[in-house]
Every structure is written in C-alpha cells, then in structure tokens.
Amino acid sequence: MKNLRSRTSAIALSFAFLCTSAPVFAEEQDSSVTQDPEAEEMTVPPATTDLIVVEGTRIRGQLFVEEKPIAEFNEEDIAAFGASSIADVIAAIEPATGSGARGSRGGGRPVFLINGIRVSSWREFRSYPPEAIRKVEVFPEETAQRFGYSADQRVVNILLKPNFRSVTAEVEVEGPDRGGFTRNEQELTFLRIGDKGRLNFNLDIEDSSLLTEAERDLIVESGQPGEAQFRSLRADTMSAEGTVNYARAFIDSGLSMSLNGTFNHSESRSLSGLSNDGLVPLERRGDVDTASVGATFSKPVGDWNAVFTNNSVYTDSRTEIDSFNGSGFDIANSQTWRLDNAITLTGYPIALPAGDVSVTVDYGLDWVRISSDDTRSSLETELTRRRFNGRTNLSVPISEVGGHWGAIGGLSLNFSSGFEDLSDFGTLANWSAGANWRPTDTLGFSATRIWREVAPGLSSLGDPRIDEFNVPIFDYSTGDTVLATLITGGNSDLLAETQADWKFSGNWELPFWENARFQVDYGINRSRDVTASPGFSAAFEEAFPDRVIRSGAGELLALDRRPLTLFETRSRVLSFGLNTRGQIGKAPEREERGSEGRRGPPQGGGERSRGAGGRFDPAQMQAVRETFCSTPEGEMPDLTKIPEMFRARLLDADGNPDPEKIAAARQRFCGEEAEQRGERFAAMREAICADPPKLDGLPEEMLARLKDENGEIDPEKLKAMRERMCSASGGENQQGGQRGGGGFGRMFGGGDEQDTRPRYFLSFNHNIVLENEVLLAQDGPLFDQLAGNVLSGGAISENTSRLEAGLFWQGYGMRLSGRYTGEATLLGGDLPGSSDLFFGDLATFDVRLFADLGEVLDKEEGWFKGLRLSLVADNVFDARRSVVDENGETPAAFEPFRIDPVGRYLGIDIRKAF
C-alpha cells in the first residue's frame, strides 16, 4: 500500500467517494469527470498520518500447515469444470486427489474437510452445488495425520461461501451410440448457507435398462442355441435416494454441528442364461435398502479444539438366485448394522522458535454386525465386531524458511502411534514417522514410514455365498472360453494383515508456469497375510488348486472367488503429477492517459464514449456497504453480493481474494470517516440532481471539472455527471453495452477493462509400477505379477495415466477426461493347449461441452438465468482393449464388446439453477 499524500480538499474527498463507493456502471469513463490521477491511485481514505497499516484477512477454514498444497482451485476454476455437484468436482480433480504411491493398497476416496473441519461421511456434502464452493485445497497424505487419519490418504479441504442459496434441477439422458440400453437421472437440490448454518435437501432418481449379449452379437460356443438373449452384459437397475443435511454454528459458544440423513433404495435384475434343460431363463434379482444418519460436533475446549463425528448405517440386502435346474430360486439375505464414533482433539500446547507443536489425539468406538442366511445352507452367519481405537500425532516444527534456523529451510517432524482393540482379532498396533523439508517456499520434500496391523473387513469375513451361473470364463489350460459358475461371498478364516510402507515425495511450484505444481511420489509397500479377492489365471490355479473345480475330464465347472490370505505382497510405485490453472493470454491493460494525465476515451469514442456513462443505484451501494460492514473483522465478506466484474477487482493474480484490497474497500465503506464522506456525497448528489441543478452547492473543485476551457459550465459534462449520479437504476449503459469501467470499479483496485480471457485447468497423473510380487510361503514360490503370473485379478499394467483438463470462456466450456492403461501379459501355464494372453494398451477420452445460456445470451433474469446445457461424449474414439492369445486370436471371454459393451457413450444434461 502506498503512502498517502496530504489531505485533499472536500470536493476531492466527495468525488472520490462517488468513484469508489457508488455502483456506477459505465462502459467508458468520460474524461471530463475523471478523477485526478493522484486520487485514482489512492487505495484508502486520507488519515492523520502518512502511513496506513491494513490487517489482512484469510478465508475462514483454510489450512495453514507445513505441507504445501498439491493443487488449489478457486470458484472461477470450479465454474470451468461444468460440474453439477461437489461429487462431480471431486471427479474432475481426481488426478490430484488420488494417492499415486499407495501401490497395492488400491484406491479409495481422500479425507474430506468442510471449512477445515472433519465430516461424518461423504454423503454430508456430496450433493451441494459447485456454485457454493469458494475454494478447494488438496494436500498430501501427511496432512491427514493432523485430523486423526493415517498418512495414506490425501486431504481435500472444501471452503464454502458464507452466504449462498440455490435450488437446482437437473435431467440427464444418456446411452451408447449403438443403442442397447439407456440411462436417465433426475436430481433436485436445495441448499441454503447463512451466517449461522446451512440446510440441504437432495432427491436423486436413476434408472438404467438391461443390455444382453444378443444386443452385441456375442455368443459362446459351449452355450445353448439362442441363449445370448438371456445373458446380460449390464443389469437392469434402478435407485432412488433422498438426503437431508443441516449444519448450525453457535457463535457465542463456538459450537458448530451438522446432522445428515440418507435413505437409498436400489433394485437390480440380471440374466444368467438358461437352466440346464434349456427351458427356463435364469435371473438374479437384487433389492437393497440403506438408511444412514450422521452427525458432527465441533467446539473449543480450553486451548484445544474438539470434533466429534458419528456415522450410523443400516443395510438390508436380499438376492434371489434362480436354481440351475429351473425348479425355483434360492434366497441370500444380509443385514448390516454399523455405528462409527470418533472424537478428535487438536491443540498447540508447546511454542518453539520455529512455531507451535501441533498435537492431535483421536479416539474411536465402532460397532459392526453382519447377519446373513442362505436357503442353500441350514447355517446362519452372524458376525459382530467391536472396535476401540486411539491415535496420537505430533507435528514438531524445527525451522522455518526466513525464520528460526532459516538457513536449512523449513523443517518439521511428524510422529504418530495408535492401537486398535477388536473384539474378534484382539489388539492391533500402528505407528508412523515422517519429515517435511522445504528448502524454499516453492519446493518441498517429505519422507514417511508407516507400519500398521489391519484386520479384514467384516464383509470379507461374513458376506453370504452367491453363485452366478453361466459366466463366460477363459480356461488357460485349454485356451477355450467356457460357461462356468462363479462363487462369491465371505471367508471366516482370514488373518490380520501387517503393512510396512515407505513414501517419499517432492512438491515443486514451477517458477516458469504460473499456478503450476509438480508432484513426485515414490512408494514402497510390503505386507504380510494380505486379504485378496482372487481372479482366475494359470498362476492362481497353480497356487490354489482347491479353488478351481473341474470335471473328471478336466472341464472347468466352477471358480471360487471368495477372499483368501496371501502370505506376502511387495510393490513399488513411482508417480508423477502436474496440476495447474490460469488464464490464457495477457491481462488487459489500463486505458492510456491523456496529455493532462486523465484517461482518454477509447478509439472511435463518438456518442458511445460521450455521455454513455453508467448509472447510480443507491440501494445497490447500500447493499455493498452492508456486505463489507456487517462482516466481523478477520472474516471474509461474502463477495457474491458484489457485482461480478467488480468482484474480480478484489482478487489477486491467482484469482483468490486479495486481503489488502478487501481491507481497503472495508475501510472506505465502514467507520466514522466513511459516514462523513457519505453525508458529503449525499449533499453533492442532492445539489447536482436538483431541477435545475444547484451548482452553488457544489465545491469549487467540482465546479472546475464541469467547466470548459472558457471557464463556463459545459452542458455535456453536466449532463454526463447527472446521468451518473442521478439515475435510480443500476442497469446497462445507454448504448446497451456491458457494464463496467466506471469509478466504482477503481475502489477494487483500478479501472482496468473487464478480464474476459479464457480460463483453463489441467490435472495429470502418471503411475509407473516398478514391482508387484506375491510370495505364497516363507520359502516361496514367488509370483511376479508384472511378468504375467497374476493371482489377485486381471492383467497388471506397468503404466497408467489419468487426465482432467478444461477450458471456459464467456459462458462456453469444455472438459476433457482421459485414461491410459499400458500393455500387460497373463501367462497361461505349461500344460498342452494352454496359451498366454497379451493385453494391448488402451487410451480413452471423454468430452463434456457445456454452455451457461444466461451468460452466453447475456440474460440476467428470466428462464435463461442459471440454465446450463451440456453434451456428453464418453470414449469419443470408441476405443477398446485388444486381447489376443499366442495365435493372435481373441478368445470369446475377451471379445471387445464383452470387455466393454458400452463403447462410445452419448448424453445430454440440462441443469437449471433458480
């Protein structure tokens, strides 16, 4: 902020108030009423001293931790996603949120925070519209420890706008371009975020029709004639879900709470061919009801902050399976009750020269019960697990960049230890240790060691057995595709797993690319007694021959894919990620000044520049004043109440709210001096707007600006000033052009032209699997899954990639999603007739084109306001993975339309925000 010069005259103050406080909308500023150049550059009103100190503000709920964010997205970036909900936003940033170094640990959602606070479950916020988001921050896995989680999930902090209200309705109709089935979805969402809380209702209904093998011209030679029309590639499904979310903050006590409830009903029907006599179609019908409730309470307790979360879920599942002999059907029932409770205490009890020691203590008490029965068995299964767990995490700052021991950069250490006491597995332990080092503000490194014992999930132990008949399976021993029975369910003999992992990371904010970060992760995973869901391969049959059922002649009859325990697994993964966002082209420059230091009219000014200034709306000015003055110090005002083009002037170069600009605007609008300026301005407006104008009531300096070179009042200048100050509307200018460019805009940091440059975002991640091995016993055998000896699923590719990118410009948007899977091999064994399989690489691209019709057509009212039309094209190039045997032929089980029966997928999405 610049030092202020000596106090200006009363007219300069009054006119500065006009140019900085009144919502004057003008396409161009007439040179006759332009401020003095020195006054234009002022950012705060004059004071008794030459130096003004403004305290900056931050967005409430932002995280300030040693770890640098992997990616950040502001509301303009999020608008470019074309998303319909927070769930869509998370999908759009998936390359940044997925932990590339998990290796064999698999995927899963990251840890979610709302305004920096833990939530009870994903359903608490997933249906919120993206317009409610102020900012999204993505942090590395180490940050999760501060919130009571282990260091193997990234953290997504979603910052919501403080005041927001919307009702959105959305309809989607989609299906493959070659037909076969259709999918439709209808969703209705209400969200209100106020000063003290938020309320959300969401209703979602989805329906998808059946797709059979006959509709893709698929047959299996060993099947019965005409059976293809009775085998499904995709089930007929329907689901309906209703959600209620409520959150409330109690300012006086510091307590905040959230409650949520969801009920989901889903149905499915799939076909499994014909009965063994060829007369009865075999169906499998599923019916699932799920009721969920959750709560979160957050409150300061002394010097600590306490967060309590509860998540309670009841699931009732019924599956009807037609008997293979066509005589009726069997029933598999399952009921699951789950209660998860956790309390997390966070504090900073010790002050060190480099910062405060952060301590997080987390305790949980969970209870799960699974009850299942099957008409094919007289036994009923009932498993219950009580889990009591605790964890303590310490984050110790050793040095800080530019501060204590700054010569070594910023260094912090993390330590955590915990336990789990399970009613069915006893006490299990876990610990982790890590270091974060930032040699500069833009470069950071981390190393983390994680060791823990993990019990198998209760579903893996107790799910009911389900037999799926007539499943096409490739038999590696013969090279043929046969129809066999697939057995799934639980296994009560599973053991507790021991995990020992290393993770090394680097995070670099690129100096040559604005708002771009490059992330590198290297993970080493070692596990004992691993729970795995097996696939089928020659290696699997060699390792577990009792899981493969054959006839006396060697024909494959059934495959048991219930979970089993692997002695040891080893994996190493190297991951690269790039996340960036910004605008294309140079920022618009300020208008050049005339010879007298004033802004000159644009080229071809004519009538459009002369007398075409904007209009003054006192009610709008008062609303803007209330926005700034009603917000407590230290909190961010609701910028959504500021006109859009002027709101942009409160942002910094990264598109984030600029604390200094906001503080300066607050100082102009609020306080005793602002009231005095308002009174002076009101007197000026009354004088200039009188009929005829009372020019004697104007200060001499203002009169001087209304005079021509002969010292007489210029009628055109007077007319222009009256139009700016006296109109009661805040609409468009007389020429119908866009609003902007007037003195009101300079309150927010200058009179620049509106920035209409295209916005872009890009998030890319590439994983390289360096090692993936399974050891069946202490002394072997060892199966190298990268080389094709796969036990636990399909072929494993060395290289995989994920891309999300988008472009948004003046209401039009495009989002591109890409996935790449590299080549892989499955070995077929050494038996006569066996064959290896070779999987080709696969790259697919999804495109979403959308238009915000209100912005495109410049309609701020009526039906087009908030209306968005989207066109969806998934797998645009209709790509499918090729699978061939040693003879170059494709087995029936791996035909392209069997692997991917959908292919190119088209849809239309209409969304209206009210």
From TrEMBL:
| Major site of localization recorded for this protein | membrane
Instruction: Tell me yes or no: is Membrane among this UniProt entry's keywords.
Output: yes
Signal sequence annotation: 1-26
Q: What protein does this entry describe?
A: TonB-dependent receptor plug domain-containing protein
Q: Which UniProt keywords apply?
A: Cell outer membrane, Membrane, Signal
- The scientific name of the source species is Qipengyuania psychrotolerans
Q: Where is the composition biased (Gly residues)?
A: 602-614, 733-750
Tree of life domain: Bacteria
Task: Read off the SUPFAM superfamilies from this record.
Answer: Porins
InterPro entries, sorted:
Beta-barrel_TonB_sf, Plug_dom_sf
